[in-house]
Amino acid sequence: MISNKTIRTLTSSPPSFPTLPFDLIPKILSRLPVKLLLQFQCVCKSWNSLISDPKFAKKHLSLSNTTYSLHCLRSSYSFDSVLTNVTAINVARPQFPSNDRVYFVGSYNGILCVVDRCIDLFLVHLWNPSIGKVKELPPLVEPQNCCHRRSIYGFGYDPVSDNYKVVVVLPVFDFINGRIYYKNNVKIHTLGTDSWKNISVFPFAGIPIQQSGQYVSGTINWLACIGRNCRCFIASLDLGDESYQECSLPDCGKIDALSVYRDCLCLICGEDVWTMKEYGNKESWIKLFTISNMRNSLASSHPYIKAKYVFEDDQVLFKCWSHTYISYDFRNGTSKLIEFEDNLEVCVESLISPCF
């Protein structure tokens, strides 16, 4: 005979567990790493819908701790013991060919811009390795009289249209009275459209020192030089109104590279690192620190050293010959040699998708 006590036990509801308020869940998830969020998409339909929402991706990028990844086109590496705040992520190989013609243009908000120059064509891919999504842009046909070796590229975000843009500057030459004259045609693609647009001709006649432009404050910036005295300057394109300007450099001597430091333009001038605190204002250039100790200790074995990236915690990644790199910590003066399979690019981890 079954007692009333037994029946109550079998039919009673299971004990309830504490639940989070619905409006608190997005606040918690928006502060978690990308890798964990991708796993949480499988928890339920509502979480999958939330994490896939572009608005949530923007919120996550603004609130999460900045974590960098260093990526090669054929590999992804872990640098926990080399650079702080730098990790690798487990991603599939990019869904586009990786060969000697393919190289990085730059990155922003976790999206890497990759160019593949085929015969008479430029193929551009936007790739977020954190979420494994790739967007191939419409092919760009190269003019017959184009000097592709002097082509320059840029990738960045236009705050006016709230969209991403890719810029390609194609130097086209003509023979006039036995002399070669160049005209820099500019093509620009806005993500979500199906074509490239012509904008006004690039007005700068200088030779680019760096092929890839640096993105800061809605502008793409290229380091270039002009004349027999090799006067260096920064050629800038505003992605919003598609206008040009020239930015002056500080009186710092030999300039090795143009980079970005805490959303400001950054120059590596010989042994010194400079940054422009107020974009476009020459008087706002200040010297951050000197890297002479590291250069002096490695100059004998690695005479060619150029800065690749300056991290927000004052660590610098230098490139030597071939695929050899050096990480340098300015705070304690230590450095470490790193070997890679090919060239690399730095990007933050994000949920931002290039597939509009």
From TrEMBL:
Stored Gene3D superfamilies: 1.20.1280.50
Domain F-box: start-end pairs: 14-60
Pfam families per record: F-box, FBA_3
InterPro entries xrefs: F-box-assoc_dom_typ3 (IPR013187), F-box-assoc_interact_dom (IPR017451), F-box-like_dom_sf (IPR036047), F-box_dom (IPR001810), SCF_F-box_component (IPR050796)
Identification of the protein by name: F-box domain-containing protein
Organism: Trifolium subterraneum (Subterranean clover)
